[in-house]
Amino acid sequence: MYGTYLRRELAGRKRQTMIVAIGLAIAIALVIIVNALTAGVRDAQAQALESVYGVGTDLTVTGAAAEPGEGGGQRFDFGSEDGSTEGDTTTLSQSTLMTDFMRGTLDASVLDTVTATEDVTAASAALSLTNSTFSGELPSGGFGAQDGTTEGAAPTEGDAPPQGGAGGGSFGVDSFTVLGIDPAVTSVGPLASVEISDGRALDSDDAGALVALVDATYASTNEIAVGGTIDVAGSDVEVVGIVVSISDSADTAANVYLPLDTAQELSGAGDVVSTVYVQAESAASIDAVQTALADELPDATITSQSELASTVSGSLSSATSLITNLGTWLSIIVLAVAVLLSVLLTLSGVSRRTREFGTLKAIGWSNGRVVRQVAGESMVQGLIGGAVGLVLGIAGIVIINLVKPTVAAAEAGGSEAGPGGMSGGPAGGGMFQTQQAADIVLQAPFTPWVLIAAVGLAVLGGLVAGAFGGWRAARLSPAEALRSVA
C-alpha cells in the first residue's frame, strides 16, 4: 500500500522529481570530483617531495645557509708543475669535490643527538657535494706567466675565463652532484627512495672504499656501466651499482652516491654532514620530535614534510590552492543550494496538495503517516539524485584519468651547476640559480568513503526536504480540505 502510493505520487510529479534529483546530482558529482582532485594533488605533492625527503622521512635537520661571500664557489688551484705546455698553450685538468655552495654543514655528532631524541625510530646522515672537473687549453700567459706555469689560482667556477693571450683559449667545467650516505641505513633517507637496477647496493663493508652507485639517467647519458670507474676528486671510483627512483614521477637525490666516510675524505670536508633524515615513531609525534630537536640543536634548521610542501612552487601549488579553497567552497554552496531547492519544491508541493492531505487525514491517516509519506517521496528523490550524481562523478574521474593532466612541481634551489655541468669559452660561464622541476601526471583516485559519503549527502538532503515538507503537511486539518472541496 505504502509503496504503491509512493510510486504513484512520484510518477504524478515527474517534473518536481527531476528538478530535485538533477540539482542533487550536480552537487554530488561536484563533491566527488573535487575530493578526487584534491587527493590527486596531494599525491602529486607527496611524489614531488620523495626525491628530497625519501620514503619514510618525516623531518630533516640541516645546517644554516652560508652568508653571501662566505663561499665563493668552486676554486681550482694550479701549481707550477700542473698542466703541460706546448707552444703558447697550456693544457690543464683538475677535479675537485666540495660541499655545496651557500649550504651549511653540521658536525657528524648531530646524528647521535637526533638518534637519542625521544620518539625517533630511525635516522641517517648525508653529505651533499658537487664534483667539478676543470679542463681545457689556456694561453700560456693567461694567468700572468709566460713559461706555461701559473702564478696563482685558476678562475673560480663563477668567474669568466681569461681573455686574450697568445693563441686564445677555452675551458670547460663539468659538474655532477655527489651524496655521501651511510650504506648501512636504507629505511630512511635517500636510499629509501631508490632501487638497484643493475649491480649491487652499498653495504657496511664498503665503508672507506672507493665505490659508488650511479643514477641510471646520468649513467646512460655519460655511458657509465657497472664495473667501470668515474673520476671523483681525482680518484678512480668503481661503479658497483646503478640506481633508479622507486617513483615514476620523482628523480633520484644525486647523480652519484658514495659511502659517507669516503665522501668526507675525498672532499676534505672532515667529519661533517649536510642533512640528517629523521623518521618519527608516528605521525602524531612529528611535532613533538621537531620541537625537541629544535631545542637540542638551536643552530640547525628542522623542517617537516608539511613545511617543505608549502614551499613547492609552480602550477602544483596553484592547483592545490584552487581545488582546496575554491572547489571545496563551491561544493558546499552548490550542495546547500540543491538542498534548499529541494526544501522549497517540497513545501510548494505540499501546499498544492492541501486537499489530498486533508482528505487523507479525514479518512484516518495519522500525522506520522503523512510525515512518512512526504519524507519517503523526498528520500527517493534524493536516492535518484545520489545515483545520478555518483555516475556523473565517476565519469568525471575517469575522464580526468584518461586525459592525464600534467602539473609542474618546482622547488627553489640554491646556486649550483646546471645539468651536465658548465662549459664556456671566452664568453664565460658560471654558477646560476636553478629550480628542481618535474612534470607530474595528475591522477584522480577513487576513494570509496567519498563515494559513499556523497550518496549519503544526497539522501540526507532528501530527508531534510522531507522533514520540512512532512512538518508542513502534518499541520493541515481536514477542515481545510473540506473548504478546498467546497
Automatic annotation (TrEMBL):
Keyword Cell membrane on entry: yes
Entry-linked Pfam families: FtsX, MacB_PCD
Cellular compartments per GO CC: plasma membrane
Annotated transmembrane regions: 20-41, 326-347, 382-403, 449-471
Location in the cell: Cell membrane
InterPro entries: ABC3_permease_C, MacB_PCD, Macrolide_Exporter_MacB
Keyword Membrane recorded: yes
Keywords assigned by UniProt, alphabetized: Cell membrane, Membrane, Transmembrane, Transmembrane helix
Region of interest (Disordered), residue spans: 66-93, 138-169
Gene Ontology MF terms in the entry: transmembrane transporter activity
Domain ABC3 transporter permease C-terminal intervals: 330-478
Main location as per UniProt: membrane
Topology versus the membrane: Multi-pass membrane protein
Occurrences of domain MacB-like periplasmic core (ranges): 17-294
Source taxon at top rank: Bacteria
Family classification: Belongs to the ABC-4 integral membrane protein family.
Record protein name field: FtsX-like permease family protein
